[in-house]
Amino acid sequence: MSNPQVETVTTSADKVKLGGAVVLLAAALVAYYALAAQGALAQWGALLVLMGASVAAFFTSESGKSLIAYGRDSLREVRKVVWPTRKEATQMTGYVFAFVVVMALFLWLTDKTLEWVLYDLILGWKR
Q1: pLDDT over 70 (residue 44)
Q2: Which has the closest alpha carbon to 116: 127, 100, 105?
Q3: Of 76, 23, 71, 69, which is closest to residue 50 (Cα–Cα)?
Q4: Distances 29 to 32, 36, 48, 58, 77 between C-alpha atoms, Å
Q5: What is the pTM for the complete model shown?
Q6: Is 6 helix (H, G, I), strand (E, B) or coil?
Q7: Tens digits of residue pLDDT in 9-24
Q8: Which residue ranges make up each domain of the chain?
């Protein structure tokens, strides 16, 4: 099964939409700080309206449409996943916990054995 490369052609209209989205986002930030004297309601209103317009402009571009398609495909794949039952999840968690304890004991014993061999037997350093 081959995965062909998909080339997207970016049109000038698409570039204008993305540029407009960036300009609207910058305008939202400028308006938020410029309307500080008008009160919090005017600040937040301008910020939310201009950010909403920026998001809308982005989602009308090809990049936005492909992002929406990617999200839909991701949700479709998540629905296909077979999730474990509570019992299976609990058992697997127990197995992992037991494995971690066994490995911790093994590494501790290995460390103490090597310490004993190197320092006590070979070097003769008694503590």
Answers
A1: yes
A2: 127
A3: 23
A4: 5, 11, 10, 17, 37
A5: 0.56
A6: coil
A7: 578 888 999 999 999 9
A8: 1-81, 84-127
| Distance in Å from the first CA to the final CA of the chain | 66
Query: How far is it, in rounded angstroms, from Cα 20 to Cα 110?
Result: 63
pLDDT in tens, 69-121: 999 999 999 999 999 999 999 999 999 999 999 999 999 999 999 999 988 88
Q: Determine the Cα–Cα distance for residues 51 and 30; give it in Å rounded to an integer.
A: 11
Asked if residues 12 and 42 have their Cβ atoms less than 8 Å apart, the reply is: no
Distance separating alpha carbons of residues 32 and 53, to the nearest angstrom: 15
Contact 61, 21 (CB under 8 A): yes
Return the structure tokens found at 77: 């794949």
Q: How far is CA 42 from CA 2, 25, 92, in A?
A: 54, 16, 54
